[in-house]
């Protein structure tokens, strides 16, 4: 079975009712249940946000030799990590919090192929996929309700500081726009700001992303 047909089957599956996006009230109810120990609630939250992982891929120019389903799976791992770490005191939507974890995982697998400069690329390949599989305009329903970029970024930086070295944290924070003014930077820009050679910045970023991916898998298996 070709990659294209597998992706087509996957997006058709995500159009089923059990994957329907949740309202804010439904999200909060499931989050409260999950925090009380309900794995069923966790699974419902994951299912309801799987299409948003696909939505995130629109920000990337995917190398043609990479199976899009492998990228989606990595994004799904990031989604699950974000849900597990979601703090009920935060009023933002689940997706707008988890999108940062999704992007970390997706960026990690893409850097392994050395075919992309990172987050927020042109997305031309994704546009072709979207047209090829004729996704309905209502397939993605992303709400930014209650989103505070600074609040989410601070939480992520605090978590990253427990795993990464200070230099790795600095590179990742600039690369993903996790510190004021919350602007995503290219590796070239990060290198200039840190007065380091581009090759070295690449090495630091790749090592940091691999650490984060391993930690994500380890945490989800606990």
Name a few traits of the molecule:
mainly alpha, globular, 10 helices, 0% strand, 222 residues
General description of the model:
The chain has ten helices and no strands. It starts with a helix and ends with a helix. The radius of gyration is 17 Å and the shape is globular. The chain has one domain (3-221). Helices cover 64% and strands 0% of the residues. It is mostly helical.
Annotation, overall tally of beta strands: 0
- Beta-strand proportion: under 5%
Q: Tell me about the biggest sheet?
A: none
Helical residues, percent = 55-70%
Distance between the amino and carboxyl termini: 34 Å
Overall pLDDT score: 80
Structural class based on helices, strands and sheet pairing: mainly alpha
- Counting DSSP H or I runs of 4 or more residues, the number of helices is 10
Low-confidence stretches: 115-126, 143-147
Given the C-alpha coordinates, what overall shape results? globular
- What integer value in Å does the Rg equal? 17 Å
Order of helices and strands: HHHHHHHHHH
Number of domains: 1
């Amino acid at each position: 079975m070709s990659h294209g047909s597998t992706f087509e089957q996957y997006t058709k599956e995500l159009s089923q009712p059990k994957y329907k996006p949740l309202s804010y009230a439904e999200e909060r109810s499931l989050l409260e249940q999950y925090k009380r120990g309900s794995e069923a609630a966790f699974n419902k939250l994951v299912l309801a946000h799987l299409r948003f992982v696909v939505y995130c891929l629109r920000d990337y120019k995917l190398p043609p030799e990479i199976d899009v389903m492998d990228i989606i799976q990595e994004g799904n791992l990031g989604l699950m990590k974000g849900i597990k770490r979601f703090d009920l005191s935060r009023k933002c939507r689940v997706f707008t919090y988890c999108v940062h974890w999704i992007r970390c995982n997706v960026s990690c697998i893409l850097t392994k192929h050395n075919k992309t400069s990172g987050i927020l690329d042109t997305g031309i390949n994704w546009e072709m996929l979207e047209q090829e599989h004729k996704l309905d305009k209502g397939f993605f329903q992303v709400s930014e309700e209650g989103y505070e970029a600074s609040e989410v970024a601070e939480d992520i930086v605090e978590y990253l500081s427990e795993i990464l070295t200070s230099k790795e944290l600095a590179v990742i924070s600039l690369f993903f726009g996790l510190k004021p003014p919350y602007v995503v930077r290219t590796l070239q820009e990060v290198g200039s700001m840190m007065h380091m050679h581009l090759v070295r910045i690449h090495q630091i970023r790749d090592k940091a992303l691999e650490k984060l991916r391993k930690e994500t898998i380890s945490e989800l298996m606990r």
